[in-house]
Design goal:
By secondary structure, the protein is of the alpha+beta class. It contains 14 helices and 25 strands.
């Protein structure tokens, strides 16, 4: 099993291009099930998660062709017909977002059998909101033996969907199902993340009639069919924030390109408060830190445009070296402090009480063997390793490969001493 080794202490200098957003790409790939015509996605990230979903889509009848286009990686998806409505456990368990094929399968063919999802072990992350939304659109849902059996023999119909709390996944899933439903669907208390807007933009290019995406109320006027389209995946705001924090942790000056600073404004505000210089520009931002100790800050995770839960672990890594006590309040996922014991192995001083973590800054971190527990936690350990004395080895980096494209290459190009240890073999240096 691969590991990543980081020798700390190198300042970062250079430029990092940001990839397309994983959380957007996988929902856009699922949208290809809604039409028999080709859907071309550009600015596609090449990740374990997109590969997992590609394998599942092939099983359902989609032709998936990856290539390098004029603007970088792209994927062409064509589903002339649904050859199977069965999404088995061995494929769905690899990535929970693959559960989102359920809605498009129902909308297009009127039936589906989809395994309950797996993915990262971050709390329960139930799918009941997804199922209740599909029932509101006329689906008949039956659960047994770990599978969802869903039918809509006369097609889905428009309906009212009001979520008791904001859910990105359930909002996206409802969108994917409702665009082909007969009549009008209203989603209330919808998530407002940029990925929702990106999905709606793509669906509208395909002929859907979606308004209000990016606000708490989304209106979908169902159409009889969708056509093909070409759509560029928006930049990954979590990758943007992660590399911004890596630059702040290591020190130096790093320019992040092919992205948007406004997607991570809540993070930028906290970085500036902590003493990091952040300069937005047309195609991204520059992060600069040249000496001086960071200041402790308080962070509460919230749905977009608040502070993203997917950046909480990375920011906590930064605060391990800050002057004073930082407070982290996690309001989105209940088990999202699994990185804390691993940061403690590097010398961090952190205590957790329920949904709150207190981080007392230390003078220095010391490299050690650590273990990734989930995608965001794993990259927080890499960030900490950039500033730790000696060598940090992060085990279980398959979590990293799910969400970060060419991480060692991107950090290495800016001077980080990062290398991948292949299985039990010898380290491969990244120049």
């Amino acid at each position: 099993m691969d590991r990543i080794a980081i020798t700390g202490g190198a300042r970062l200098q250079g430029e990092i291009p940001i990839s397309g957003a994983k959380n957007s790409a996988i929902k856009l790939m699922a949208a290809s099930l809604l039409t028999e015509e080709p859907l071309r996605l550009t600015n596609m990230p090449r990740l374990a998660d997109t590969r997992f979903l590609g394998n599942l889509l092939r099983r359902l009848g989609t032709e998936v062709v990856e290539s390098d286009g004029p603007d970088g990686p792209e994927t062409l998806l064509t589903t002339r017909e649904i050859v199977s409505g069965f999404a088995p456990y061995d494929l769905v368990r690899q990535m929970r977002a693959s559960f989102n094929v359920l809605g498009p399968l129902l909308a297009r063919s009127g039936q589906a059998k989809v395994s309950m999802p797996g993915g990262c072990a971050i709390g329960a992350r139930p799918v009941d909101l997804h199922l209740k939304a599909l029932e509101a659109l006329g689906a008949e849902i039956d659960l047994h033996e770990g599978y969802v059996y869903a039918q809509a023999p006369r097609g889905l119909r428009g309906g009212e969907v009001e979520f008791p709390f904001v859910s990105v996944g359930a909002t996206e899933h409802t969108l994917l199902a409702a665009v082909l439903a007969d009549g009008v669907t209203v989603i209330r208390n919808a998530a407002c993340e940029p990925e929702i807007t990106d999905l709606a933009d793509c669906l509208n290019k395909m002929g859907a009639k979606v308004t209000g995406a990016g606000t708490p109320t989304i209106l979908i006027e169902g159409v009889g069919r969708l056509s093909g389209a070409t759509h560029a995946v928006l930049p990954d705001r979590i990758e943007t924030g992660t590399y911004a924090l890596a630059a702040a942790m290591a020190g130096g000056e790093v320019r992040l390109t092919r992205t948007r600073s406004d997607f991570i404004q809540a993070l930028i505000d906290k970085m500036v408060e902590a003493g990091v210089e952040v300069i937005p520009h047309n195609d991204g931002l520059t992060v600069r830190r040249n000496g001086g100790r960071l200041r402790a800050v308080e962070v509460t995770t919230d749905p977009y445009p608040g502070f993203a839960t997917d950046l909480q672990a990375q920011f906590m890594a930064l605060m391990t070296l800050a002057d004073g006590e930082s407070v982290f309040r996690e309001t989105i996922f209940e088990n999202r402090f699994m990185h804390v014991p691993e940061l403690a192995r590097l010398g961090a001083d952190i205590s957790v009480h329920g949904g709150e973590a207190r981080v007392r800054g230390v003078a220095a971190l010391q490299g050690a063997q650590v273990m990734a527990t989930d995608l965001r936690a794993s990259v927080s350990l890499v960030i900490a390793g950039l500033a730790a004395r000696g060598e940090t080895v992060v085990n279980r980096v398959y979590h990293l490969d799910r969400g970060f494209e060419r991480l060692e290459e991107k950090l290495g190009a800016c001077g980080a001493q990062v290398r991948r240890l292949k299985g039990e073999g010898v380290a491969e240096e990244i120049e």
